């Protein structure tokens, strides 16, 4: 706790030394008594410093509003400044209570940077005149036009040349002070410039330069009363109120976002911060002082000085009050040109020329928006320039969001126009050109099924085109979003998705008796006929146990396996080759059964003329299961089976350690004591009569084309 207080105390001294010359300089640049700038700084510390929002952000008179205030005061007088600031503060409080603080963060970054640059350029131009103790001419364009005459005036005036020398010294110190070795560079550069400038200006014979005129803060205060508030309905004053509200709010919240990135403490609560800024401006307006905002220069100095809590910004307001009350005479020693040099550096940082190149490099469209915003502010005024920048940014965003693709296909006198994306009025010229290109064809189909958004202007254009072409005798079909019915034109429609053909003709299954036994669920299994028994040309390829097409079988012997699946069904009786099998099984019968295999109740191998052949479709192929063990009926299980290792495929993949795919088993084979078939004619159930089984140990080989034609390529052995 003590360490936090000590660091906040030292940080408050640093912030005070930074804020003092800025308060004086902003007031001088705004054309008002410098005491009004100090009063705004005091309110920002002692009032806003206590309020919620941001803990480390410091408020006070902002350089960004100096040119705007100068123009207003020149036209309407200092007496109307208080009411404008007062009403602006009330509007800020209302915006904060309505929780619209986040609204200012939705502004395009290019507009924000363009606005800051637009504030910086007029500030630089105005401070060039103050740098040589000359009176500025007014607007930024007038100040720019008067620069040649200003140069000639300085060349022939010794006092103005002396002021120029002090001002240039202040600019150089502000730009280069960070390169001074530590710990000297910890002293704020504006304070160093003020002290050195005041000392040099006090040297006898240096030259007569203008200095700050400061009376007392009590005399500078002009309370806002009902008589001044009665003039706020003037359109020009209302416009200035809106401008102050928008710019002060935006600058404060943008500064808050930048300060949050500088520290790891609690982030800014934007609605509360906006309300707090409104309270501060309401009080400044009552006192007739300058409008205040959160100032990034003071806030950055506060964070860099190690501030942890609100105490540092509160104490900085106390130091400003003490200085204004106890040492006002010291302000009379400060040359105006020194303050101009400090503000000129601040204006250059707002202008930030490298930001234009960086924005152009990242996004040329946003770079154009940034440039137009800056140019509009310089040429017109701050509010009009920001509005122009926002309008350009909105148009750019709409153009990018309204991305439309038109694909045209023609075949003789038939045309198909396919529209995709956002079809809005911004793309209406492109749409009209596409429609005109097909206006001389007899048959037209406009496909808008892939349109994300179709606005009324484009819909009306398409419908008018269709109506006019129909009156001319052409056939026009439309498919647009929101139509209750969609008509198809077979001659024109091109499918968006490839049509997948079903291979093979399904064979209707013969109803079988309902199975019994604990191995079956009461609900029927999924439709196993929707899948395909397909795979590479293994030596084995018959439908096996454990696949989605598996049927439960019984065989002549109950085989014992070393690796048994705990949940496999068990056989209850013996069955011979070629006979119908009972669906009840022994757990030892199938060592590893696929966990998701649907169990069809009545399956027959269909070998040797027993039972009908099963249909198979060619749409989905089962994945290979490298861990499945395939059971061969009536065959002993062991390390060898007729010279072939158990579970190893036979045929074109000899010698590879490759398991047969899941769902496949060898065709009806022979037991250990049986002789392989050699050319025995086959009957119904496995193949058509008259086909001779090849002499390959009883296995179907590449010649079983009948199976490929009937059941698909996966049935080839």
TrEMBL record:
Residues 7-373 form the SLC26A/SulP transporter domain. Signal peptide: none annotated. It is a multi-pass membrane protein. Residues 499-717 are annotated as: Disordered. Residues 552-564 have a biased composition (Basic residues). It is found in: Membrane. InterPro entries: SLC26A/SulP_dom, SLC26A/SulP_fam, STAS_dom_sf. The keyword Lyase does not apply. Gene3D superfamilies: STAS domain (3.30.750.24). The chain crosses the membrane at residues 9-28, 34-51, 80-98, 110-132, 161-177, 189-207, 236-259, 318-348, 368-398. This is SulP family inorganic anion transporter. It comes from Streptomyces albipurpureus. The lineage of its organism: Bacteria, Bacillati, Actinomycetota, Actinomycetes, Kitasatosporales.
């Amino acid at each position: 706790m003590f360490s936090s207080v000590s660091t906040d105390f030292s940080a408050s001294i640093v912030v005070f030394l930074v804020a003092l010359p800025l308060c004086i300089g902003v007031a001088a640049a705004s054309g008002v008594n410098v005491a009004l700038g100090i009063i705004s700084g005091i309110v920002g510390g002692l009032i806003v410093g206590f309020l919620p929002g941001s803990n480390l952000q410091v408020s006070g008179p902002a350089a960004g509003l100096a040119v705007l205030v100068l123009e207003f005061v020149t036209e309407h007088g200092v007496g109307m400044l208080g009411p404008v600031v007062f009403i602006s503060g009330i509007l800020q409080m209302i915006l904060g209570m309505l929780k619209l603080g986040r609204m200012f963060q939705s502004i395009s970054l290019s507009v924000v940077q363009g606005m800051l640059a637009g504030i910086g350029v007029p500030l630089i131009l105005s401070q060039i005149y103050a740098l040589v103790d000359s009176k500025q001419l007014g607007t930024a364009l007038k100040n720019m036009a008067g620069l040649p005459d200003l140069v000639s005036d300085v060349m022939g005036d010794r006092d103005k040349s002396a002021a120029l020398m002090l001002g240039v010294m202040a600019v150089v110190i502000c730009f280069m002070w960070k390169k001074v070795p530590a710990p000297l560079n910890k002293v704020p550069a504006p304070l160093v410039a003020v002290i050195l400038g005041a000392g040099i200006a006090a040297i006898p014979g240096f030259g007569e330069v203008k200095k700050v005129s400061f009376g007392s803060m009590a005399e500078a205060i002009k309370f806002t009363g009902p008589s001044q508030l009665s003039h706020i309905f003037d359109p020009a004053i209302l416009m200035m109120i809106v401008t102050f509200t928008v710019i002060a709010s935006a600058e404060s919240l943008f500064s808050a976002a930048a300060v949050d990135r500088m520290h790891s403490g609690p982030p800014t609560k934007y609605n509360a911060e906006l309300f707090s800024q409104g309270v501060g401006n309401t009080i400044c307006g009552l006192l007739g002082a300058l409008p205040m905002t959160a100032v990034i220069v003071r806030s950055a100095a506060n964070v860099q000085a190690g501030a942890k809590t609100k105490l540092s910004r509160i104490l900085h307001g106390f130091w400003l009050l003490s200085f204004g009350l106890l040492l006002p005479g010291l302000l009379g020693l400060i040359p105006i040109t020194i303050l101009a040099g400090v503000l000129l550096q601040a204006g250059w940082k707002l202008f930030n020329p490298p930001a234009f190149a960086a924005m152009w490099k990242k996004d040329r469209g946003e770079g154009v928006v940034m440039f137009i915003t800056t140019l509009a502010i310089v040429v017109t005024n701050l509010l009009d320039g920001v509005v122009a920048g926002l309008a350009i940014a909105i148009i750019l965003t709409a153009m990018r969001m309204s991305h439309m693709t038109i694909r045209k296909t023609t075949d003789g006198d038939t045309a198909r126009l396919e529209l995709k994306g956002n079809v809005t009025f911004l793309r209406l010229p492109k749409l009209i050109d596409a429609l005109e290109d097909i206006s001389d064809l007899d048959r037209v189909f406009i496909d808008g099924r892939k349109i994300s958004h179709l606005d009324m202007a484009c819909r009306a254009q398409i419908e008018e085109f269709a109506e006019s072409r129909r009156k001319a005798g052409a056939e026009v079909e439309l498919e647009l979003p929101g139509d209750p019915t969609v008509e198809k034109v077979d001659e024109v429609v091109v499918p968006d998705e490839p049509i997948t053909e079903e291979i093979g003709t399904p064979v209707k299954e013969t109803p079988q008796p309902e199975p019994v036994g604990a191995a079956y669920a009461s609900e029927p299994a999924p439709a196993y006929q929707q899948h395909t028994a397909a795979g590479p040309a293994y030596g084995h390829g018959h439908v096996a146990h454990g696949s989605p097409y598996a049927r439960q079988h019984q065989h002549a012997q109950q085989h014992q396996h070393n690796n048994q699946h705990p949940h496999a069904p068990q056989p209850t009786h013996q069955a011979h080759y070629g006979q119908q099998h009972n669906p009840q099984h022994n757990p030892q019968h199938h060592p590893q059964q696929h966990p998701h295999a649907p169990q069809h109740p009545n399956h027959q191998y269909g070998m040797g003329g027993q039972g009908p052949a099963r249909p198979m479709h060619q749409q989905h192929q089962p994945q290979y299961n490298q861990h499945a063990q395939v059971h061969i009926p009536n065959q002993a299980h062991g390390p060898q089976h007729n010279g072939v290792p158990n579970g190893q495929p036979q045929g074109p993949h000899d010698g590879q350690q490759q398991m047969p795919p899941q769902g496949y088993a060898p065709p009806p084979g022979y037991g250990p004591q049986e002789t392989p078939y050699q050319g025995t004619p086959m009957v119904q159930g496995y193949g058509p009569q008259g086909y001779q089984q090849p002499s390959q140990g009883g296995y179907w080989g590449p010649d079983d084309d009948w199976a490929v034609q009937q059941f698909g390529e996966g049935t080839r052995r």
